[in-house]
Structure formats: C-alpha cells, structure tokens
Amino acid sequence: MQPLVNQVQPISRIRSQFQVGQQINFKDKRTGEECTVVAENSIPSNMRYFFPDLYKSSKPLLALDMDLTLVNTKIGYVKPADIQMTLTQGAARVQYSVVLRPFLHEFLDSMAKMYDLMIFTSAGQLYADALIDRFDKAQHIKRRVYQQHCTPITENGQPVFVKDLSRIGQSLDRIILVDDNARSIQYQLDNSILIKAFDGDTRDNELEKLEIRLKKVYETYIECGNVVQALKKWK
Ligand SMILES: [Mg+2]
C-alpha cells in the first residue's frame, strides 16, 4: 500500500484540549525536541494551524463533513440527481451524480447567521471544490479543508482519515464538527455530532432536526462561551 500523505503527529495525541494561544509543553515525537507552544507562530511546522487567524473571529466554527453528511454522490450517470459533473483526473474523466440532502440550502442559510461555516472533508480537493462551488452558490462556506488536512492513521489494517480539530486554529471550546463517520471524529468526541449517513432518501429530515439543535446550542454558547458544554446540554 502507498504510504499515506501528511504523516503528522496530531496535537490531540499529546493534549486533547489544546487551546489557541495557550502555553503547552510537549515533546515533538517526530524530532524528539522539547517544545513549548505559546502562540500560533511558534508551533512546529508539522502542527501549524490551517487558519492561524481564525481564533479572532467573533463566531464559533461549524465544521461540516461533506459526503454522506450533506450529499450522496455516485460515480457515473445516475438519475435522479441534483448535480451532474464531470471532472478530469489525470487521464481519466469521471462522471459524478450528486443528490443533495433535503433542507441543505435552508440549513446553510440559517447556520451562516450564527456560525463560521467550514467544510472538513476527507475527499480530494478537486472533487470537493467542484462540488462545493455548485451547491453553495450563496458562498456561506468560507473555509475548506480536504483529505490532505486529515490525520491518516491505520485501524484494523484499514486507513482512516481522522479530523483533528486542534489543527484548525480556533479554540476547541468554539468548534463543532458534524460527520457521519464515527472514526473521523474520534479525537474530539465532545466537539462532535455524529449524524446518520445520508443514503439519498428524499424523505430524510436529519438537517432539519440538526438545525433546531444547533440553534439551541448557539443560544447556550452565547451564555456560557463553550460549545462543548452547550452540546452536552442539547443532546
Ligand atoms: Mg462522510
């Protein structure tokens, strides 16, 4: 098997509740070096934040997985679909047929009023960018991170792309991740909402339910300043 890209030591292995700007002492397992992190620019290059200025935002961050959370994509020309797109990948042309999860546009419109929106996908960038450009015409989603930003680990001989929220650049008391894959969220379970995988069913109402919950979470966050506490209150 090909070695996975970006073999970094996740900060969360060393300290799970890493806060932006907080002083932490640790040994860099790659270099053996003793490190102290006091500010984003002193973080070792293999641990740098994806968005070093994000902690200055006044809003909490809502990180959304894409495949099976917001959309259901099939390879080939499959009907019915909301989006059909053909992408050239090397010598190959690949056709994608995409069904959007019901209530997706309303969900994004509503959430953008409260949260900074980000896609955190383990898919490749070419496909992800092409798809986000098509379903987010209102450009509510301001940030995107892809497979190369995930932390690759091996579980039971299978590669798993974990989404390490401590790499993003926002404090963990201000980040929520929504994902259908329990293995992707394993580093920061307290920050995460596991959503039922979207199979393309037009009667699916998970995003409607999620919108109601995330509105309550936001109201509680405004009072207590901590999304982890707010998520515990509104299960
Ligand atoms: Mg997914």
Supply database-style keywords.
single chain; binds magnesium ion; disordered N terminus; alpha/beta; 12 strands; 235 residues
Describe this entry's structure for a reader.
By secondary structure, the protein is α/β, with parallel strands linked by helices. The chain has one domain: HAD superfamily/HAD-like (Rossmann fold, 3-Layer(aba) Sandwich), CATH 3.40.50. It is 21% helix and 26% strand. The chain contains five helices and twelve strands. The chain has helices at 11-14, 104-111, 125-135, 206-224, 227-233; strands at residues 24-27, 34-37, 61-64, 71-75, 83-89, 92-100, 116-120, 141-145, 151-155, 158-162, 175-179, 192-194. The strands form four sheets. A five-stranded parallel sheet has the order 8-7-3-11-12. Helix 2 (104-111) packs parallel to helix 4 (206-224). It starts with 10 loop residues before the first helix and ends with a helix. The structure holds magnesium ion (MG). Magnesium ion is lined by residues 65, 67-69, 179-181. Residues 65, 67-69, 179-181 line the site of magnesium ion. Its main location: mitochondrion. Belongs to the TIM50 family. It is found in: Mitochondrion inner membrane. This is Mitochondrial import inner membrane translocase subunit TIM50.
